[in-house]
Amino acid sequence: MISARPSIDSQTFTRTGRLLKSVCSAFALTGALIGSCAAADFKAGALELNDLWIRASVPGQTNGAGYLQIINPGASADKLVSAQSEASNRVELHTVITEDGVAKMREVQGIDIPAKGNVKLAPGGYHVMFLQLTGPFKQDSLIPVVLKFEKAGDVRVNFTVKPPTYNPGSQPAGAAHGHGTGMKH
Ligand SMILES: [Cu+2]
User: Fold this and answer.
1) Domain 43-164 belongs to what architecture?
2) Residue 105 Cα, ligand 1 centroid: separation in angstroms?
C-alpha cells in the first residue's frame, strides 16, 4: 500500500484537479478502477465529500451503514441534516455511544461540520444508517444517496460497496486523509 504509485495515476489526477487526492492513489493501488475512484469524490458547495463506502451485505442482512469523510475548507460551518436513498426504506444519521460497556447506535438530528475542519463518518462513530434494505449491497456496486446539508443543500452521491470485511482503519492510507491536502503515497 505504500509503494510508489503508477505514473498514469498522478498524470490523470493532476489533470482532473484537487478533488482526486491521495485516497484515489490508494484505491488505484488496490486494483480498483480509476472510474470508480472518480465517482467516490463529490462536492457540495464548499464541502468536499471523499471516500464514501458501505460494506457489502450478507444474506439475511436488513440494515447497513455508510461512511465518508466531509472536508470543509470554507469559512462557515455546515451540518449534515439527513439522507435519502432508494436502497432502503429509511435512512437515518446515527452515532455510536457506549453505555455500561456496550456499544449502541443512536439516531442524531444532524452532524456538525466545523468551518475549516472535517468530520469523518467511520465504524464505531457517525454513520449513515440504511434501514430495511430494498436489495442487497453487492460488492463493487454503487449506491446512490442524496445527502442534505443545512447550507450546501442537497447533493447526489454514490457510496461504493466494499467487501463485507472491509475495515479502512487497518490500512495506513486511512490515517493520511485527515488534513485533506496530502499526496504522500
Ligand atoms: Cu446505525
Assistant:
1) Sandwich (2.60)
2) 5
Distance 180 CA to ligand 1 centre (A): 26
Distance 106 CA to ligand 1 centre (A): 7
Report the candidate in 160, 161, 164, 182 with the shortest Cα–Cα distance to residue 173: 182
Q: What is the pTM of this model?
A: 0.71
Segments in the chain forming alpha helices (H): 7-16, 22-29, 34-39, 172-175
Model pLDDT for residues 154-174, shown as the tens digit of each residue? 999 999 999 999 998 765 543
What per-residue string of b and e applies to 35-46 under the rule 16 or more CB within 10 Å gives b? ebbeebbbebeb
Q: How far is the CA of 122 from the centre of ligand 1 (A)?
A: 11
Strand 117-121 relative to strand 142-149, pairing:
unpaired
pLDDT tens digits for 62-74?
A: 999 999 999 999 9
What pLDDT sits at residue 83?
98
- By C-alpha distance, which of 168, 155, 87 is closest to 125? 168
For the chain, the domains span: 1-39, 43-164
pLDDT digits (tens, 9 = 90+) for 84-105: 999 999 999 999 999 999 999 9
Which residue's entry shows cell 442487497? 136
Would you call 182 helix, strand, or coil by DSSP?
Answer: coil
